Amino acid sequence: MEIREIKEQEKEKFNKTVGHPVQSWEWGEFRQTHGNKILRLGLFDKGRLKEGFQLTIHGIPKTNFRVAMFTQGPEPSAATLKGLKEFAQKENLVFVRIEPAVVSSPKLESLITKNNLKPSRPFFNKSTYLIDLTKSEKELLFSMHSKTRYNIRLAERHGVEVIEDNSTKAFGKYLELMDQTTTRQKYYAHTEKYHRLMWQTLNPAGIAHLLVTKYKGKILNTWILFIWHNHLYYPYGASSEEHREVMASYAAMWGAIKFGKANNLKTFDLWGADDTKGYTRFKEGFGGKKVEFAGTWDLIINPTVYLLYRIAEELRWKALKLKTRIFPFHSSFRAQD
């Protein structure tokens, strides 16, 4: 087994091996336009690419040190960790944060212990809901909470419609509603620039799709969905405060499910579940299977700097929480990166 950097001409082979859109070549291109360095590595067996993985490199402000994020990748192996250590040392990395899109297992737990990986702050939610799109619409509706089915039918009676619209005008509406949503719900989101760059890269590649939900010609919801291999993902959504009585969000989710089935996809990943958040109750009502991943782990390269980094990281998060309690909320969506 050999681990080396992936070459430009190996893009197609690389994409065939990676199992999540944020591991795709195109996602890496987007992150590069956003200012991040990308490191693409491959695990080769007798010259054949068996596994690809993509890391984003982030500088630590006012230092020469850097860290790497390896999110939503495959289950790491001993060979993978060995290769990551070697490349991390070359890149002057303090640590590599590993967050595989797999459930835990005794084998993985043993590997984590042997390599002294440390539990860390998650990048993605540890849990998500998966909806089986191979089921019929009747079966899917039957598996939902009764209140969810009722709200879907209520939206239908109101004439709410859900369509795919990838036009510039529709994307502009998505940005407008995202600004409103982050302000209304008081959470910090990626900036407008981030969303524009993401869309400009992933939509032409056929990965990102925009679903709009309309009531009497007015757009109430905009959702960006990702298609990767046989799977559908729901990473971003925005909504209007208007006409909440027509249950546009329920129509949007049902429309997304039907969109996935129309594209012959197998599963719909709702991109996160957090029992402390209201959106989780909404997602739960659609009858998906809750899956808990193996967690987030740091592969430490420079122990001394790592300790200082983790202390600073915890202080930063505590400061952000304190800020939201003391000062009025101001959306960061329109901020410039």
UniProtKB/TrEMBL annotation:
GO terms for molecular function: aminoacyltransferase activity. One of its GO terms (biological process) is regulation of cell shape. It comes from Candidatus Blackburnbacteria bacterium RIFCSPLOWO2_01_FULL_40_20. Transmembrane segments: none annotated. InterPro entries: Acyl_CoA_acyltransferase, BioF2-like_GNAT_dom, FEMABX, PG_Glycine_Bridge_Synth. Pfam families: Acetyltransf_6 (PF13480). This is BioF2-like acetyltransferase domain-containing protein. The keyword Phosphoprotein does not apply. PANTHER family: LIPID II:GLYCINE GLYCYLTRANSFERASE. Residues 147-275 form the BioF2-like acetyltransferase domain. Belongs to the FemABX family. Keywords: Acyltransferase, Cell shape, Cell wall biogenesis/degradation, Peptidoglycan synthesis, Transferase.
